[in-house]
Design goal:
The complex is a heterodimer of chains A (about 350) and B (about 400).
Chain A lengths: L22 H6 L3 E8 L2 E6 L4 E7 L4 E3 H14 L3 E4 L5 E5 L5 H10 L31 H16 L9 E4 L13 E6 L8 H7 L2 H7 L5 E6 L2 E6 L9 H5 L12 E6 L14 E8 L6 H17 L6 H8 L1 H8 L28
Parallel strand pairs in A: 7-8
Antiparallel strand pairs in A: 1-2, 2-3, 3-6, 5-6, 8-11, 9-10, 11-12
Helix pairs in contact in A: 4-8
Chain B lengths: L7 H4 L9 H9 L3 H16 L19 E2 L17 E4 L6 E3 H14 L3 E4 L6 E4 L6 H12 L14 E2 L13 H11 L1 H5 L9 E4 L8 H4 L2 E7 L4 E2 L1 H9 L4 H6 L7 E3 L4 E3 L9 H5 L4 E2 L4 E7 L13 E7 L14 H17 L6 H8 L1 H7 L31 H5 L1
Parallel strand pairs in B: 6-7, 7-8
Antiparallel strand pairs in B: 1-2, 2-5, 4-5, 8-13, 9-12, 10-11, 13-14
Helix pairs in contact in B: 2-3, 4-5
Chain lengths: ~350, ~400
């Protein structure tokens, strides 16, 4: 390859977003008056001017082939003047001004296998990480679990029938690239065994003081093994966070036999009604069971079905559990309550029940 | 044309109503050997229940320290097509708006050099090009920057690509221009974005209202959340319409108000705006009838992060209200002076006192919020806390010496 490469333009930043805004948005920027959900996956925004912008939203697996991006682009050309956007939950939104284009667009999206929905009181798309598709520290796959769960939940994506909003997220290890810790239902990959120390490589490719400093529980100590500097790990103190592996590849933590999934509930980021809050542990461990992780799907379905049946209008999962109490949550779901559900990290005491506000139903 | 390997386990994920990522990889594999290799490797992972990607690798483009994630396979000998599988992060346009034309152009480049696979989008917001070899990185960067006007996003210990909600482009609740602010911050901090010089990552997310559609309170070190100071705007007729269409205003709106600031007598909705905590619930429930007030701005919160290292944190209030008027020139360096001053003082403190891989939220936990506020010369205000401390272990640093003035007054 002898040809030269033109020098890249550095520090030009992203293209200015205005280049990609449809004329109706430019004309009504900052002066939208209200919106209404017209039917599943379709809403209209009405401007002070009286202009209307129709949004059609479809789900995507986030991992998209260029062929699919071109398909969305061509549909946008055909139906929405070539304008479209993505949402923070990996949905695609077509920005239409001609109401007559809504149904033909929906028909084409559905025919191509991309369900339309996810607006209002539905189960929107799952925010997730890379998993075995691209990550070195993944304790489970991401896309596969999401696909299996969403196959079960797709009916709730396509219909508005839930008591309120429900957000599901998945992170394939507790690095939590997707910061799933504030979701109604969080599916979290976990390791359960300490890293294996490759003594030959530790001092060759990593800095031992950095490794030691990386451990939040001070479980890692310097050691000389077979005459070479290395580290040892106190297994009793290791809580499998993989932070040492992140700083040193010679401490692999992935373990096909013991890695799996935990499920957390009741978190939210919105300020509506109650304050933003973290998700709490519901199921401490489920085996990795590819390709369809049936126990994970079943657990999510259990939570969703109970919440859908019991929650009052607008109540999120955490608000519902707060009302019925955690004992009722565990009794109704049938999830086993174990010592693992009781916090033993920092500030653990703040989660102990320090009153006699108990229910005995 | 690449050979498509047999993938009996993955094929089970081609069934079912939700769009299948396996189908996406197979579409890409028609054109790309890399995508085909990915199928083979992923099938192995599904068999053995483990990842076959190696840990990191130093690759990148000239002049930058971030934007490319190096990825190599443990199975390089068996599956040479995925020996390299690097990721390029492209800085997305504010609000994730695109045109068909620009998407086709990006696809052209990626089909020429990469796996034909993308993430739309990564967790932080970037448009992710997933899987290519080291030798094409510069070519891709050259073509996307010269011909399409895109630049790389952040990775490693730098300011990560800022992102925002749809904002005033399509939302009546946007209390400031999230797109303009995100663009301005991104342009202002190009060097911080492309050249990792921080202790660790620093994420900025801009949400137009307290619904926080970009999860900034949980996912960003700096969370900029739109809000308002004056009265909620009420269209009384439209409130009545919601009631007549079956919304139970007393039960589902008034009784759920965390500020206990509403009354509904069956005809009129009364709001005591002084008690409103700006949660958005009533506005969400009746979008045609209620709207945020007109004196709009944002609250600035700091410190959210995922569990690694010291545990997950949510951001907490630093500035209860700030006006964020968008400048005429989108890249104006004099815009948002109060916010910029806060960001830069925070970075200065973090750069000086933070440990390697310590996020700002963890540093504040370690040194104490009081110390942090004093060091960045930021006044403590009661909006910063949910309650004052309940333990008496106070680090008092003011006291009287014998015979000092003021002693008499103290002893009265």
């Amino acid at each position: 390859m002898a040809e030269t490469i033109r020098p890249a333009q550095t520090d030009i930043g992203p293209p200015h977003y205005e280049k990609f805004l449809p004329p109706v948005i430019k004309a009504n920027y900052g002066t939208w008056k209200y919106h209404e959900i017209l039917k599943p996956g379709v809403m209209v925004h009405v401007g002070e001017s009286g202009d209307k912008l129709f949004t059609v939203r479809c789900g995507s697996p986030r991992l998209l082939a260029t062929e699919t991006i071109r398909l969305f682009a061509d549909l946008a050309t055909k139906y929405s003047g070539g304008y479209l956007r993505w949402t923070s939950r990996n949905n695609v939104e077509f920005l239409l001004t001609d109401q007559a284009n809504i149904d033909p667009l929906i028909k084409e999206l559905q025919a191509a296998g991309y369900p339309v929905g996810g607006i209002g009181n539905t189960i929107s798309n799952i925010v997730h990480t890379q998993g075995w598709v691209h990550c070195h520290s993944a304790a489970t796959d991401a896309s596969g679990v999401v696909k299996a769960v969403m196959d079960e939940m797709c009916q709730h994506f396509e219909k508005r029938q839930m008591p309120g909003k429900i957000r599901i997220a998945l992170a394939c290890c507790l690095n939590m690239c997707g910061a799933v810790h504030c979701s109604d239902i969080a599916i979290l990959g976990i390791h359960r065994r300490p890293p294996v120390v490759n003594h030959k490589d530790v001092n060759r490719i990593c800095e031992i003081p950095t490794i030691i400093a990386s451990c939040p529980t001070a479980a890692i100590r310097p050691a000389t093994v077979d005459g070479i500097p290395s580290v040892t790990i106190d297994e009793e103190r290791c809580m499998f966070c993989a932070n040492c592996y992140t700083v040193c590849p010679a401490l692999p933590i992935n373990n096909g036999l013991n890695d799996g999934i935990s499920i957390w509930v009741g978190g939210k980021v919105s300020n509506a009604r109650t304050e933003p809050t973290m998700s709490k542990l519901a199921v401490a461990y489920l085996d990795n069971d590819p390709p369809r992780w049936p126990a994970v799907v079943e657990s999510v379905k259990t939570i969703v079905d109970l919440w859908a049946a019991e929650a009052r209008p607008f109540e999120r999962v955490g608000e519902w559990i707060e009302r019925i109490g955690w004992p009722a949550f565990f009794a109704k779901t049938g999830f086993e309550f174990t010592k693992h559900h009781i916090d033993d990290f920092k500030w653990a005491g703040t989660t102990f029940r320090r009153s006699t506000h108990l229910r005995y139903a | 044309m690449a050979d498509i390997p047999k993938t009996p386990l993955l094929d089970e994920l081609m069934e079912g109503p939700w769009p299948s990522f396996v189908r996406e990889i197979k579409k890409a594999a028609k054109k790309s050997k890399t995508a085909s290799g990915l199928l083979a490797q992923l099938e192995r992972s599904y068999t053995d229940k483990i990842s076959y990607w190696k840990h990191g690798g130093l690759v990148g483009v000239k002049g930058y320290g971030g934007g490319v994630i190096g990825r190599y396979s443990f199975l390089a000998e068996q599956i040479p097509d995925v020996a390299h599988f690097h990721t390029i992060r492209l800085n997305q346009p504010s609000g994730w708006f695109y045109t068909s034309e620009v998407l086709h152009k990006l696809c052209d480049v990626w089909e020429k050099y990469g796996s034909c696979l993308t993430n739309m989008h990564g967790s932080t917001g970037d448009l992710v090009l997933l899987g290519c070899r080291t030798e094409v990185l510069e070519r891709i960067f050259s073509e996307v920057s010269n011909d399409i006007g895109f630049d790389l996003g952040g990775s490693g210990s730098d300011m990560r690509t800022p992102s925002c909600c749809v904002g005033p482009a399509r939302c009546e609740w946007a209390c400031y221009d999230t797109l303009a602010l995100t663009y301005n911050l991104t342009m202002r901090y190009q060097s911080e974005l492309h050249r990792p010089e921080f202790q660790y990552k620093f994420k900025i997310k801009s949400a137009g209202c307290p619904n926080d559609c970009v999860a900034s309170v949980a996912r960003a070190d700096l969370s900029i959340i739109g809000t308002w100071r004056d009265a909620i705007q009420v269209n009384a007729d439209a409130v009545g319409e919601y009631a007549s269409k079956g919304l139970n205003i007393a039960r589902d709106v008034v009784n759920r108000c965390p500020g206990r600031c509403m009354e509904w007598d069956g005809k009129a909705l009364a709001i005591d705006d002084k008690s409103c905590v700006h949660c958005m619930h009533c506005i969400n429930a009746m979008p045609k009838a209620l709207a945020p007030g007109k004196d709009r701005g944002a609250a600035i919160l700091l410190g959210a992060k995922a569990p690694i290292i010291e545990g997950a944190l949510l951001s907490s209030v630093m500035i209860p209200f700030i006006k964020l008027e968008a400048p005429e020139d989108p890249a104006d360096e004099d815009a948002y002076p109060e916010l910029i001053e806060f960001i830069e003082k925070t970075w200065e403190f973090w750069n000086e006192h933070g440990k390697s891989r310590e996020r700002i939220g963890e540093l504040i936990q370690r040194v104490g919020m009081g110390t942090f506020l004093e060091e960045i010369d930021h006044e403590p205000v009661p909006e910063m806390i949910s309650a004052p401390r309940y333990n008496p272990y106070v680090f008092y640093d003011e006291y009287y010496e014998e015979g000092e003035e003021g002693e008499e007054e103290e002893e009265e």
